[in-house]
Amino acid sequence: MNAPDHRPNGAAQAGLFTPLRLDRGLTLANRLAVAPMTRVSATEDGRATPQMADYYAAFAAGGFGLVITEGIYTDRAHAQGYLFQPGLTDDAQRDAWRTVVDRVHAHGGRIIAQLMHAGALSQGNPHRGATKGPSAVLPKGRQMTFYRGDGPYRMPEAMSDEDIAEAIEGFAQAARRAQEAGFDGVEIHGANGYLLDQFLTAHTNLRADRYGGSLENRLRLTVEVIGAVRRATGQRFIVGVRSSQGKVNDFTHKWEGGETDAAQIYRGLGAQPIDYLHTTEFEAWRPAFGDQGPSLAALARRHVAVPVLANGSLHDPLQADGVMARMEADFVSLGRGALTHADWPARLRAGTGFEAFDRGVLAPIADLANAARHREERHCASGNGTSAQDPD
Ligand SMILES: Cc1cc2nc3c(=O)[nH]c(=O)nc-3n(C[C@H](O)[C@H](O)[C@H](O)COP(=O)(O)O)c2cc1C
Fold first, then answer.
1. How far is 43 from 52, CA to CA, in rounded Å?
2. Count of domains in the chain?
3. Does 67 contact ligand 1 (Cβ within 6 A)?
4. Atom of ligand 1 nearest to the CA of 280
């Protein structure tokens, strides 16, 4: 987002406002979802706060049919990625989420919990000292300072069979708690360089067992997690999966086998009991490989029968509408667009226009307290608080 966008609402965008019926009896009021966004604003012991309930409720009040939460850690072994990240590892954490869920539901929104195991990218975990991943491979890049990290990542230990079983069980039990808290579903975080993606990625997975080597083996952990989550939650609960090529510590990574890998990965996931597939790229409409060819969302849609949720710079309404109109996706999720305007859908409908994303809301720490402070300062500086500037 570089310049404020004041385009009026075009009739073409009407498609974004049609309901979407997912399997298992869940209907979304429209095709607009809030993308999962870590805000490191929970209590130290991982409970969601009233401030988080306000934050999530605002998206539903603003017209988003679906809210996907930030990545929630799934066990008290090696899953937690960030200090002040919320969890779903005990009854207190589960009960804290109930308020968030109820507030979103009160506005007619639906809410899905994203379940995340950080693996080798964990940079703040009070439960364990060491990090663990598929293999002892030093992660690329550096820890994220806006999540309170500093310096290079730590060298992870390779997970044992027991560690893997514990991680799978963590996803299953966290999903069960999400269901008990009233969530409409869970999204298994298989993307962005976290544990499941570390297993999928050849250069971070050097294992010689049934979880390493071939693409089928590298996808096995994700498949097993899906199965365990489905068994723990039964047949009437939404289970989605998020998939990406890029990683938080390696934005430009591409699958070595190009479209062939995409076909195998998406057919493999599509054969599991999932209800939607969430793809993310920097710009969702761009070719997934090279200068031409289908987008990642389009490839997903080609190979799975369930609805595809596309993510990536779709705060441009014409692009959001385009991926829908070209049938590359069934619904779209917005990250920065939703952060800029919690009422993005209502604004699109009304033709009110959009302001540019302001990275200042995530600096120096990407939490809700900092965002509130930043907005207040800008409000004072501008006299009315309505201007926004992208530092880029
Ligand atoms: C502050 C912030 C936190 C994020 N945290 C997560 C997360 O917890 N889980 C996840 O899958 N993606 C996370 N993302 C990625 C977003 O879901 C989304 O893919 C990204 O913002 C690109 O979408 P956009 O172009 O609409 O902003 C995060 C993004 C931002 C800006």
1. 10
2. 1
3. no
4. 19
pLDDT exceeds 50 at position 134? yes
Distance from Cα 209 to the centre of ligand 1, integer Å: 32
249 CA to middle of ligand 1, Å?
A: 13
Q: Is residue 391 part of a domain?
A: no
208 CA → ligand 1 middle, Å: 32
Is 337 close to ligand 1, i.e. is its CB under 6 Å away?
Answer: yes
Tokens representing residue 171 in the block? 């996803």
The rounded Å distance from CA 71 to ligand 1 centre is 10
Query: Residue 5 falls within a domain, yes or no?
Result: no
Ligand 1 proximity of 81 Cβ (cutoff 6 Å): no
- How far is residue 366 from each of residues 85, 140, 331, 353, measured CA to CA in Å? 11, 22, 26, 25
pLDDT, tens only, 326-384: 999 999 999 999 999 999 999 999 999 999 999 999 999 999 999 999 988 988 887 75
The reply to whether 1 falls in a domain is: no
Is the separation of the CB atoms in 59 and 338 below 8 Å? yes
Q: What is the CATH number of the domain that holds 200?
A: 3.20.20.70
Mean pLDDT of 38-56: 98
| Ligand 1 pocket test, candidate residues 1, 37, 339, most atoms within 8 A of CB | 37
| Residue 189 CB less than 6 A away from ligand 1 | yes
CB of 85 closer than 6 angstroms to any ligand 1 atom: no
Q: Which two tokens stand for residue 103?
A: 């507030």
- Which atom number of ligand 1 is nearest to the Cα of residue 191? 11
Confidence check: pLDDT of 149 > 50? yes
Question: Residue 192: which of 105, 279, 305, 94 has the closest Cα?
Answer: 279
pLDDT in tens, 150-184: 999 999 999 999 999 999 999 999 999 999 999 99
- Kindly state whether residue 387 falls inside one of the protein's structural domains: no
Domain range for 94 is 11-382
Nearest to 237 by CA among 26, 35, 65, 77: 26
Kindly list the distances between the CA atom of residue 69 and the CA atoms of 57, 111, 333, in Å, as whole numbers in the listed order.
11, 7, 12
Rounded CA-CA distance 153/176 in Å is 31
Q: How far apart are the CA of 187 and the centre of ligand 1, in A? A: 14
Residue of the CA atom closest to atom 29 of ligand 1: 37
